[in-house]
Amino acid sequence: MYQRKFYTLTQSILLATVLSSSLITAACSAESSNTEILSNQNTAAEIYELGVAYYEGNSAPQNYEKAFELFQEAANQKYSDAQFNLGVMYENGVGITQNYEKAMQWYLLAADNGDFEAQKNIGSLYYFGKGVDQKYDKALEWYKKAADQGIGVAQLNMGGLYENGYGVPQDYDTAFEWYALAADNGDFDAQNNLGTFYENGYGVPQDYGKAFEWYTKAAAQDLDLAQLNIGGLYENGYSVPQDYDKAFEWYQKAADQGNQQASKRIGRLVMNGKIDGKDIVIYSTQETGLTLGDIEAPL
Q1: Cα–Cα distance between 93 and 71 in angstroms, integer?
Q2: Which residues constitute the signal peptide according to the record (predicted)?
């Protein structure tokens, strides 16, 4: 009755999400300057900040190609943030033709300079086999480097590898430990996964109350899977009084985010007479591709 994301192996994060707050501040402060003044700066950090300005389009016209050129100039001076951003741009094809091999090259340079996010992204390239042969053991090696430095997504991915037995023997206890570290760092996927471990007794005694607690933390960050799972607890009366209306409320939150499993469950609640179907329009075969058989299938 539950829906669980077994692991989230993030390939990379978009450039805009990885810029440090200090560099964002620096880029924003450039609004009072013009591009000609900025272009006269010549330290690696200043060149990098100008690249940020072009990438963000805040204090200079947005121009990914120009941002790429400036990041490359700073990266050639061994500026690790610029090396990492070149890796991201190559991996995602932003401002340059997508090229996983070159993304790996720049990530490796950044990682050698101590960039933890680069270590994580190297792990993901190995996990997905992009630009390199797929090797789960190498993915684990690089994820661990980042995870040991407190990178939440890397900790999450370590949990996923141990949960599924990729590159290591399957080990729910170790998976739980890594998920707990990531959850403590605010990772909502890890929080949801802890909930499913407690709900199903994977590596820990089954405890619906703790499952509800962790699902709630993830749902508070708008994770649709957690909203779906809370709905399932209410529908079945696990740790909470059985309440079909509350189940519907949580299913609808998930369905509103495009979760088709939530739409199926709403359809079943209506067809089984558990809730009043009047004015409920969330279910649509055209939008979800569901069939009557999908709705009637048991949880």
Answers
A1: 15
A2: 1-26
Residues recorded for the chain = 299
- Give the whole-angstrom CA distance, residue 2 versus residue 63: 45
Q: What is the pLDDT of residue 169?
A: 97
Tokens 């707050």 sit on residue: 21
The set of residues, in sequence order, having a beta carbon less than 8 Å from that of 193 and lying 6+ positions away, is: 4, 5, 6, 7, 156, 159, 163, 179
Cα 187 → chain centroid: 8
Cα(139)–Cα(162) distance, integer angstroms: 12
| Residues in CB range of 148: below 8 A, 6 or more apart | none
Exposure of 6 in the CB half-sphere (CA atoms within 13 A): 8
- Report whether pLDDT(193) > 70: yes
In the structure encoding, which two tokens stand for residue 171, read together?
């080990």
d(CA 121, CA 143): 8
Rounded to two decimals, what is the model's pTM?
A: 0.79
On the question of pLDDT at 288 being above 50, the answer is no
How many alpha carbons fall within 13 Å on the CB side of residue 226? 22
Residue 275 burial (10 A CB sphere; 0-12, 13-18, 19+): middle
Cα–Cα distance list, 70 to 28, 54, 59, 63 (Å): 17, 9, 15, 11
pLDDT in tens, 2-60: 333 333 333 343 333 343 333 333 344 444 344 444 445 589 999 999 999 999 998 88
Tokens of 234: 């209410």
Which of 220, 222, 276 lies closest to 248 in space, CA to CA? 276
Average confidence score pLDDT of the chain: 85
Q: What is the spatial distance between Cα 107 and Cα 90, in angstroms, rounded to a whole number?
A: 10
